[in-house]
Amino acid sequence: MPELPEVETIKRQLQKSIAGKTIKNVAILYLRFINIGENEFKKTVVGAKIKNIRRRAKILILDLSNNFSIMCHLKMTGRLSFSQNSTQDGPSLIINKHARVIYSFSGGEQLIHSDIRKFGYAKLMPTEDLDKILSQEYGPEPLESVFTEKKLAEIISNKPNQKAKQFLMDQKNIAGIGNIYADEILFFAGIMPDRKIFSLSKIEIKKLFAGIKKILTDAVKYRGSSISDYRDSRGKAGEYHLKLKVYGRGKLPCPKCKTPISKIKLHGRGTHFCANCQK
């Protein structure tokens, strides 16, 4: 599933390509992908301008000029692709059979939301209602200035019985971290994924905070990790998976000490770590 770095990459790209554009048409090719009736969705979206593109956790949000927002979740196999190679009013000439929603702009430009497994969605709701829901469901954004070492310590004190990886992946604690980056952050910090979070010392919390900031920042810099289906809005693979230290490297030598990387199941998720470097 695309995590914070992948969705942030798409957000930044779409800010340059579709922000300020007016939606001329929308084609809904899979009705279960949206949360309201097709006619109501089209009536609200068509003619509205895309005022802003933002990200909350792993969700991409298109804020419209009529005070509605489209909440797009990519889930496991979703993609949001910007296309300039299409007819002005009809479906793109280059899209595949997995397109679920197509937003058309003037000049033949389109934003195509595709999804092989159909787990994603495009939910339309008033922006004010959406923001209330998101504020309740998600913790602080780890790359924003409000997320400080002090804030991390405070969140840890409220979730003492969670294991370290479970803590990082709990979206109510910190927004946007998933399986890939939780493993990488814990390796950076030298913390075993199954350690109870309350057992971390002040020095370890400091390392964990530094790891969250560095790993996520670097992953955004390299446009995320294309381990499976993820592609950015231009159809290109991210490059951070080439820099992963432990995730997906089970039995391969640790880049620090050469001990074979271990892989276990933790809360149902494949979890990678170095038994020598992490304590």
Which helices and strands appear, and what pairs or packs with what?
Blueprint: H1 4-17, E1 25-28, H2 38-45, E2 50-56, E3 59-64, E4 68-73, E5 78-83, E6 99-104, E7 110-115, E8 121-126, H3 127-137, H4 149-158, H5 164-169, H6 179-189, H7 202-221, E9 262-266, E10 269-273
Antiparallel strand pairs: 1-6, 2-3, 3-4, 4-8, 5-7, 6-7, 9-10
Helix pairs in contact: 1-7, 6-7
Q: What does this entry look like structurally?
A:
This protein has 279 residues and is an alpha+beta fold. It folds into two domains: 4-137, MutM-like, N-terminal (N-terminal domain of MutM-like DNA repair proteins); 149-273, Orthogonal Bundle (Helicase, Ruva Protein, domain 3), CATH 1.10.8. 29% of the residues lie in helices and 20% in strands. It is built from seven helices and ten strands. The strands form three sheets. A four-stranded antiparallel beta sheet has the order 1-6-7-5. Strand 2 and strand 3 form a beta hairpin. Helix 6 (179-189) packs across helix 7 (202-221). Residues 87-94 have low confidence and may be disordered.
Q: Stretches where pLDDT falls below 50 for ≥5 residues? A: 87-94
Q: Which structural class do the helices and strands define? A: alpha+beta
Proper CATH architecture of the largest domain: Alpha-Beta Barrel
Provide the succession of SSEs: HEHEEEEEEEHHHHHEE
The helix content, as a percent range, equals 25-40%
Biggest sheet strand order reads 1-6-7-5
Q: Give the number of helices.
A: 7
- CATH hierarchy, class of the largest domain: Alpha Beta
Number of domains: 2
What proportion strand?
15-25%
Radius of gyration of CA atoms, rounded to a whole number? 20 Å
Q: What is the fold-level CATH name, i.e. the topology of the largest domain? A: N-terminal domain of MutM-like DNA repair proteins
- Shape estimate: globular
Q: State the CATH superfamily name of the largest domain.
A: MutM-like, N-terminal
Query: What's the N-to-C terminus distance?
Result: 28 Å
Let me know the average pLDDT: 95
Report the count of strand segments: 10
Largest sheet: 4 strands, antiparallel
